Amino acid sequence: EKGGYDWFMLKEIAEQPRAVADTLLGRLGEAGELVLDEVRLSYEDLRGIDKVFVVACGTAYHAGLIAKYAIEHWTRIPVEVELASEFRYRDPVLDRSTLVVVISQSGETMDTLMALRHAKEQKAQVLAICNANGSTIPRESDAVLYTHAGPEVAVASTKGFLTQVVACYLVGLFLAQVRGVKYADEVAAIVEDLRALPDAVATVLESMEPVRELARSLAGENTLLFLGRHVGYPVALEGALKLKELAYIHAEGFAAGELKHGSIALIDQGTPVVVVVPSPRSRGSVHGKVVSNIQEVRARGARTIVIAEEGDEDVVPYADHLIRVPRTPTLLAPVVTTVPLQVLACEIAATRGLDVDQPRNLAKSVTVE
Ligand code: F6R
């Protein structure tokens, strides 16, 4: 059943181009419009929304963090992202004009389910992004957008995550479309860029041998740091989570801009630091700032592992290891930059002789609070 792979996780990583394509299938119209009739929320209600919450746990929460950047940019609606386990204990401000997007691969995560029930009690509209047909979370939600990743067996989420991110883009673009789009041209262009994602993911997967080799050289480390900025920040968090859960190595993700506010003190001779570099075309010169961060940590002894898009030459002088990903629009970049981090964590865990599919102390779906 592992289709020739040593682990389900490797198989599921390899399936990602297909999973992303299936999640887009039938949902992008010929004229660059979104076709999401399956999302059964009335257009009138969607037009009245003045706030979005995205609520989820673990890896799905990281997808939510990415959603915030995209949805706010495309719709100009404020978006808050919250851990499901914190959400309802905080007395969040919710009413009929709030859209709560809950994200859950399994559809059975108790923390997320309890958050959704709380949102419904407060009369918010709830849209689920889910991979498991007919599971509890979509059943109790007002509407559902299914990811079409197919069954995910490995405990660590990979194709589940990538398709959640894609589904979040669809929700953001759909909201923009329903409400009248500020950046109409940009949205139509993004729809074309979405169509290119499956091939981009496939391209990343073709060049993973150096990442596996690098992983083998990292298997004895005690700690790894992950830096990112803008949508690269949630990618850094996701890379760190994958490493913790699979390899049992301490790992932390940071917003690169926060480094100088304390965490840079962690950098020591040889500390491996993975940096997710934003596209050189991203807004507000974040690219240049991240390049400076790489320079800073390297000057303090870090061994730098840099993920940057093809053609970005600025990073070359400061990268001890350079992992290339295809050129992708800024907001969509997580779909390609996450993949090497999945492979890295998987290979480090395998090198350490660990059970990649069944990490200790973890269950695939967490049905207790
Ligand atoms: C990490 C992982 C978990 C899940 C989290 C939520 O690899 O898989 O962090 O993402 O437990 O699970 P779902 O998406 O099923 O609600």
UniProtKB/TrEMBL annotation:
Role description: Catalyzes the first step in hexosamine metabolism, converting fructose-6P into glucosamine-6P using glutamine as a nitrogen source.
Reactions this protein catalyses: D-fructose 6-phosphate + L-glutamine = D-glucosamine 6-phosphate + L-glutamate
Keyword Ribosomal protein among UniProt keywords: no
Keywords, comma-separated and alphabetical: Aminotransferase, Cytoplasm, Glutamine amidotransferase, Repeat, Transferase
Name assigned to this protein: Glutamine--fructose-6-phosphate aminotransferase [isomerizing]
EC number: 2.6.1.16
Gene Ontology BP annotations: carbohydrate metabolic process; fructose 6-phosphate metabolic process; protein N-linked glycosylation; UDP-N-acetylglucosamine metabolic process
Residue span, SIS domain: 42-181, 214-359
Signal peptide from the UniProt entry: none
EC class name: transferase
Primary site of residence: cytoplasm
Cell location: Cytoplasm
GO molecular function annotations of the record: carbohydrate derivative binding; glutamine-fructose-6-phosphate transaminase (isomerizing) activity
Active site residues according to the UniProt entry: K364
Portion held of the full protein: 252 to 620 of 620
GO CC, one annotated term: cytosol
Superkingdom of the organism of origin: Bacteria
Quaternary structure and interacting proteins, as annotated: Homodimer.
